[in-house]
Amino acid sequence: MDTLTQAALGAAIGGTVLGRRLGRKAVLIGAALGTLPDLDVFLDYGDAVANVTEHRGFSHSLFVLTGLGTLLAVLARRFAPARNITLGRWWAFFLLCLVTHPLLDALTTYGTQLWWPLDGRPSAWPVVFIIDPLYTLPLLVGIGFALGTGHGSRGPAWGLALSCAYLTFAMAAKGVVEQRLAPVLAEHGLEDAPRLVQPAPFNTLLWRATVIDGDRHHEILVGLLDGATRPLLETYRRGAEYEPLALSLEKGRRLDWFAGPYLRYENRELNGRDTLVATDLRLGFPGFFAFNYALAVREGEAWQPLKVTELVVADSRADLETLGRLGARILNPEAPLCTSDFAAKGWVEAVPPVC
């Protein structure tokens, strides 16, 4: 999630656990602890693929944060002026403010290395978008009440309860969406195909499903307010002919470890050279994928891996008109909106007539 949300979550937890003892200090310390794991964003590994795949790594590990929380609790118990706070209370304060950060991140699409340094792909079960105002707002109101009145626990506790209720709603919504998707996938023989179901930007009422089908991938929009409207499946080329080449490269394999099968490949001309570009299909929205990586360049008849991979600037960014259409589609299933409206037409393989 975004930095503001993580700070608000840490502040709400801090106020809930120790607000009665520390007042505003519990909220402020909690906010600092809530943002601490994301300081790894300032680490530059000198390579675009390394930067994205190492983020949410060691600093988000439950093992590392549990150890850090325990150390801070022991130090606070020994040196903090508030002598009437038990070690167990300090431990709950530090541990919860720290570990809820990666646990919330794991509920987004990006993925989080919860079990670092153990092997395994990043953990991700997306039920909220990386920025969701309806999740963040109750937390901000709660901690604002605490900071304004000096009552450190009541407001944060209510804000935390409402935000948790919202997450519960999002989980239930995802279950409903997956049930609506099932007959569409069965109709196209995609029941066992890898698929990713996640909220569309900034809400949990409209959901996006990405389904991988060999050299193609499919996009489906499903809204909770769609009623009997049947979801439409749109098909795109995935550039799978370049996948063996990408997987023969060290950085290509690392990106595959990070994004799984949800990658699109293309030969794009950059700076006058044929360049192998891999796009993460999970992060963003068709037509607005922000994470594109240059992996190799063609020299003569052969491809040569780039010593330092590069982040390729996206072709376009969502504007107010796009966001307006997305908002209209959330509330009205009849509002005309298809993912192919925004994607490069060269990638669209088949589009239902209604689109």
Report the end-to-end length measured between terminal Cα atoms.
32 Å
Largest sheet: 5 strands, antiparallel
What is the chain-wise order of helices and strands?
A: HHHHHHHEEEEHHEEEEHE
Rg (CA only): 22 Å
* Fraction of helical residues: 40-55%
Rounded average pLDDT: 92
What strand line-up does the widest sheet have?
1-2-3-4-9
- Number of discrete domains: 2
Residues in β-strands, percent:
15-25%
Class by SSE composition: alpha+beta
Number of strands: 9
Number of helices: 10
Key features of this structure:
alpha+beta; 355 residues; transmembrane helix; 9 strands; five-stranded antiparallel β-sheet; four-stranded antiparallel β-sheet
Could you walk me through the main structural features you see in this protein, from its secondary elements to its overall organization?
The protein has 355 residues and is an alpha+beta fold. It folds into two domains: 168 residues, no CATH class; 163 residues, no CATH class. Helices cover 43% and strands 18% of the residues. α1 runs antiparallel to α7 and α6 runs antiparallel to α7. It starts with a helix and ends in a 5-residue tail after the last strand.
Helix and strand topology:
Blueprint: H1 3-22, H2 24-35, H3 48-54, H4 62-79, H5 87-105, H6 133-149, H7 154-187, E1 195-199, E2 206-213, E3 216-223, E4 233-237, H8 243-247, H9 250-259, E5 263-270, E6 273-280, E7 292-299, E8 302-312, H10 320-331, E9 348-350
Antiparallel strand pairs: 1-2, 2-3, 3-4, 4-9, 5-6, 6-7, 7-8
Give a quick summary of the entry.
The chain has 355 residues and is of the alpha+beta class. The chain is 43% helix and 18% strand.
